[in-house]
Amino acid sequence: MPIKESELILNPDGSVYHLNLKPENIARTIILVGDPDRVSKITQHFDSIEFTTHKREFKTQTGLYKGKRLSVISTGIGPDNIDIVLNELDALVNINLETREVNKELISLDIIRVGTSGSLQSDIPVDSILLSSHGLDINGTLHSYKTESISHPEIEDAFIEQSDWSKNKARPIIVENSNSLAEKFQDANQKVFKGITVTANGFYGPQGRVLRLELQDSGLNKKIDSFKFKDYRFTNLEMETSAIYGLSKLLGHRAVSLNAIIANRANGTFSKDPKQVISNLIQFSLNKIVE
Q1: How far apart are the first and last CA of the chain?
Q2: Are strands 254-264 and 110-119 parallel, antiparallel or unpaired?
Q3: Among the residues of 164-205, which ranges form H helices?
Q4: How far apart are CA 134 and CA 116, in angstroms?
Q5: FRET label pair with 14: which of 4, 21, 99, 142, CA 20 to 30 Å apart?
Q6: How many Cβ atoms from other residues are within 10 Å of residue 64's Cβ?
Q7: Does an H or E element contain 270, and which?
Q8: Cβ pair 121, 163 in contact under 8 A
Q9: How far is CA 26 from each of CA 22, 60, 62, 132, rounded to the nearest angstrom?
Q10: Mean pLDDT of the chain
Q11: pLDDT tens sequence across 28-52
Q12: How far is CA 52 from each of CA 25, 34, 83, 94, rounded to the nearest angstrom?
């Protein structure tokens, strides 16, 4: 049965509503960044750029890097934007936009997040690279979907118990990365830290920052920092990874999240040259993608 116009909204030119993209505009390997300005910081390394569009916070450029076709897309900030981006990307490759029917043969995209984050652990220093083994959803986005097949209740239950998680909040959900895609980013010459990335739905209160408003759980960050269960621990805090991992798993895509660590909240340090750290991660990611 065709998907209704109210559910899959298209622009007058036939492109998907928010991303302003048609199927031919994107590659099968996609790099996601938050900041629209970071798109060009990546594509400046491309051999050529064939397509560019920009609508709201969503900027896309597609081109060739060392002969491989790549797309770089900015998502803006937050898991709610990831919900838009992942669903519309999937629609571009797995739904016929003319008939509005799901294709019989589904396509799996490779999705690599290249972002910045702050470390929660003292042994993960600024200027390092961190690969998210899992994403912890403490924002509730994934509860809109059936996640039983992709979640990890044993780790979730341990976190709920150790943190005395409020029953008034959405149950935390943990989703693993794509192991096969993550293997591409192993390097004997480059130390890549690993751990569970906590994904919040805001920058201030949800990440434990206090300006004028009292927090519901002022000790949550310390509980996150000190969490230990088997070999699992939380290593960094940001606003996108769990949504990328969860939606990618559910839709059949491969995803991995790479973070340039520009701050360490455990010891209060901040990178002296965050632009260079991000530049290093960009070059590292591009080279690994084409290996």
Answers
A1: 41
A2: parallel
A3: 179-182
A4: 16
A5: 142
A6: 14
A7: strand 269-270
A8: no
A9: 8, 9, 6, 25
A10: 96
A11: 999 999 999 999 999 999 999 999 9
A12: 9, 17, 22, 22
Burial state string for 177-206 with b = 16 or more CB within 10 A and e = fewer than 16: bbeebbebbeeeeeeebebbbbbbbeeebb
Check if the beta carbon of residue 155 is closer than 8 Å to that of residue 229: yes
pLDDT tens-place string over residues 168-209: 999 999 999 999 999 999 887 889 999 999 999 999 999 988
Q: Could you give the CA distance from residue 115 to residue 33 in angstroms, rounded to a whole number?
A: 6
Q: Are 16 and 88 in contact (CB under 8 A)?
A: yes
Task: Give the side-chain half-sphere CA count within 13 A for 262.
Answer: 17
Distance CA 272, CA 126 (A): 9
- What confidence score (pLDDT) does residue 253 get? 98
d(CA 38, CA 82): 17
Question: Whats the size of the chain, residue-wise?
Answer: 291
At position 40, the amino acid (one-letter code) is S
pTM value is 0.96
DSSP tag of 235: E
